[in-house]
Amino acid sequence: xxxxxxxxxxxxxxxNNIAVFDENTLDYDYWFERHEISFQSExxxxxxxxxxxxxxxxxxxxxxxxxxxxxxxxxVEPSENMAQVAEQRGIKVIRAVAEDLPIxxxxxxxxxxxxxxxxxxxxxxxxxxxxxxLKPQGEIILAIIDKNSDLGKKYETRKANNIFYKDAHFHxxxxxxxxxxxxxxxxxxxxxxxxxxxxxxIEQPKAGFGEGGFVVIKAQKK
Length: 222
Known about the structure:
The protein is an alpha/beta fold. It has helices spanning 12-23, 25-34, 36-47, 65-69, 80-88, 123-133, 150-158, 173-182; strands spanning 56-59, 74-76, 92-94, 108-114, 134-145, 185-193, 206-207, 214-221.
């Protein structure tokens, strides 16, 4: 199908996910205000990985909270309502899915995906597309909820009752690292945060993974 026609690869599951975010956009966006401490902890971890003064794009930009903070001008988002909120924050949003990016090859220095991988229909295809649109030695930066962490186990047990995560598939850091490697990325680096289950203090990130629930993975295009 044409690269620009992403509708042709949107499965029933993907349509359901997009509809959920379309119908609950403001509730989703308000999460960042209700959980401001956790949000700030996540930003600190991501700050370790995101390069300064380089051209980036956020895949699954949502309402633009992370892109706005890190001055990322471009985003990809299949949910129309989410995209509109991101555009109000100054992000230039392409309506598309990660598995089929209507973007020229070697366009960006880095691509950011924050808790997006758990919603992807075809992770290898998405990572291959991201590899294609990155410049030589470009970087993929992923933030995931590690399914083996206390937070990941909590999300998994409660996802049936969560409108956003009921169809999500959480992964371990090791699983995502393997998929990133298979897609042609190397030089992996890791940071982690959200070590506790409360919102009472901002947590400083640590290098590595295995303790925190929110893990940032950075890898370079070979």
